[in-house]
Automatic annotation (TrEMBL), chains A, B:
The keyword Transcription regulation applies. This is Transcriptional regulator, LacI family. Residues 6-63 form the HTH lacI-type domain. The keyword Transcription regulation applies. InterPro entries: HTH_LacI, LacI/GalR-like_sensor, Lambda_DNA-bd_dom_sf, Peripla_BP_I. Keywords: DNA-binding, Transcription, Transcription regulation.
DNA sequence: ATATGTCACTAAATCGATGTAGTAAATAAA
DNA sequence: TTTATTTACTACATCGATTTAGTGACATAT
């Protein structure tokens, strides 16, 4: 019952020819090395019949190529990252690569494990949304000349290929939009992270706030504890600061938590509280009211990442200059979460 | 700059001992094969210093073990599957396995590709939510004695380990709940699939409908086209059959589409239309009204899957009887999507 | 007749591990 | 003293591919 997997050696033996010949034929080198059409066809036919599939483990050991790309994201369940994953997978599939995902949970240890795991298995390249404290690991990859693209966030002190959104601008515009709608006490709900994307969003928020001489309210919560404590923290913020009239959320999952808090407090959006989210979410247009969001151009970002990585893989030797791509965010304005002016009118 | 990865051979050469010795030491066999403590420590120290990491590709080629499990699900972006993925990953990590995900998009060709890809790389086992037309591939895995657990759906004609929800019962109860709430023209919105999970949900629906002598309305839509056409199809159903007063959705993503259709038609839930979803969704409790759902006990299912697979991996030789686990679903009743009786009262 | 060139293949080294079957030296048993 | 046993290692085949450097047979050139 249990069939042993047939190897190239078996094929060669069955046809009474050398392993080398079979290998050449299977790799389409018949012409190049001068193997007769007759034999080529015979081998191909036999391979077809036996259903022989080369052992890619062995192949990779020999060649050092796996035709696999590793994509490390925060969480496969997060709609932003899931969408990126979808695009990147599709694009790489088109180029003959398989793609493998890993959820880092934004934890350095977990990311490190995944990097090691896949590096040991010789993936041909990495696309990573790095957690904090991963500088050393990233540097290692760079030193080993493993193709690498960072996205969403990066390290200022390490020069890598990377693709990010203009987080500063996006956040600034979001807060400005709230201000334009006459909101004056705007809090930023974000996570306690020094990662560039969150830092830039914070800076964008602060810029807009200070530009209009408003008072900043900032809540930074622990990423790992969002699921447990976010609703409560936001509830506290709102009860302790009844003057707050708008919330700008640093990420879409925080927005969902915030909406729950608002709901539980029996406050209304946008009348009592204006809401804008950084990062869009499928359900934002379904919720009542629907939620305005700063959206990242995910399709475009994905394309850029894929191109950067393929460039690195294809460049044989010559030193290639690292490239940084920054794409602008777009505002998905859905009035019903922020129409204070019309509301009051 | 570009460091060559150090191999066991390098380690052996540097210490002037044999490769075998190094291998034994690294695999903790010092005692067993009688290698002196002095040498053992010396090697371990040197390995530590050089930062040598064994090449798992080579190791796997030799041993046929990878300590990797492959989980194939419909779509990493789907909340049901994403949650399963999260649990399964966690459980396997605890047991020293890494887990690799693949999105099948419920397409046989894509699933086949993924199975082949990972089988070639000798993953130690598969957990699969199989698409249709995959019987031959599953049978192959079975013949090759590759550890395998199916979940969510299965093939009646193939005996495998599997874990599923009681879809029939769940659907029956959902429809019955609508009937109890005085809804009388209840449509089933499902996908055009003969897969067991969808088939059983259909049967459960039909059972309840016929038990009360009601008229069935069933819309089956193409899974691949849900994103494009679902809203329109549901809109049509509702406009062409104004007597319909409740919708039972076969999956949570269909529910989201249905709610969009209902919204666009300016109908209200639960007054005009009662709604129950098969499979829960994080946002169902956020939506207004919040949506009642038949929930699968994902944590428990995940545990069962992991246990079944580990059993297979651990069983050395003796024929093990395949096991089928069916877990009951639970109803997450959220009155506001179905409270017709109270509403009219 | 000898050298040169093609043609159609093949032997064997290699990738980096594991693990079986040994060996040489020291010690114990007869 | 000879044999058996133990101790502390090591040589080498192996997993299943790729790839370099040949080889033998035949044709053509000089």
């Amino acid at each position: 019952m249990k069939k042993k997997r047939v190897s190239i050696k078996d094929i060669a033996a069955q046809l009474n020819i050398s392993i080398t010949t079979v290998s050449f034929i299977l790799n389409g080198k018949s012409k190049e090395v001068g193997i007769s059409t007759a034999l080529t066809e015979k081998v191909l036919k036999h391979v077809e019949e036996t259903g022989y599939k080369p052992n890619l483990l062995a192949k990779s050991l020999r060649t050092g190529k796996t035709k696999i790309i590793c994509l490390l994201i925060e969480n496969i369940a997060d709609p932003f990252f899931a969408t990126v994953a979808g695009y990147v997978e599709e694009l790489f599939n088109q180029r003959g690569y398989k793609i493998i995902f890993g959820s880092t949970k934004n934890q350095a240890a977990k990311t490190r494990e995944l990097i090691d795991l896949f590096r040991d298995r010789h993936v041909d390249g990495f696309i990573i949304a790095p957690s904090e404290k991963l500088e050393a690991d990233i540097t290692n990859l760079l030193n080993e000349s493993i193709p690498l693209v960072l996205f969403d966030r990066y390290y200022k002190e390490i020069e890598t290929d990377r693709v990010t959104t203009d987080n500063y601008e996006g956040a600034y515009n979001a807060v400005k939009l709230l201000i334009d709608q006459d909101y004056r006490n705007i809090a930023l709900i974000t996570i306690d992270s020094e990662q560039t994307q969150m830092h830039d969003r914070l800076l964008g928020y602060e810029k807009a706030i200070s530009e209009y001489g408003l008072k900043p309210y900032t809540v930074k919560m622990n990423y790992q504890k969002v699921e447990q404590t976010a609703v409560e923290e936001i509830t506290q913020l709102l009860t302790q600061n009844p003057d707050i009239d708008a919330l700008f959320f640093g990420t879409n999952y925080l927005t969902l938590k915030g909406l729950q808090a608002i709901e539980e407090l029996n406050l209304s959006v946008p009348g009592d509280i204006g809401v804008i989210s950084f990062d869009d979410h499928d359900v934002f247009k379904l919720l009542k009211p629907n939620i305005t969001a700063v959206a990242q151009p995910i399709a475009k970002m994905s394309e850029e990442m894929v191109n950067l990585l393929l460039e690195q893989i294809d460049v044989t030797k010559a030193e290639r200059t690292k490239r940084q791509v920054v794409v602008p965010s777009t505002m998905h304005v859905r009035d019903s979460s922020i129409k204070k002016i019309n509301h009051n009118a």
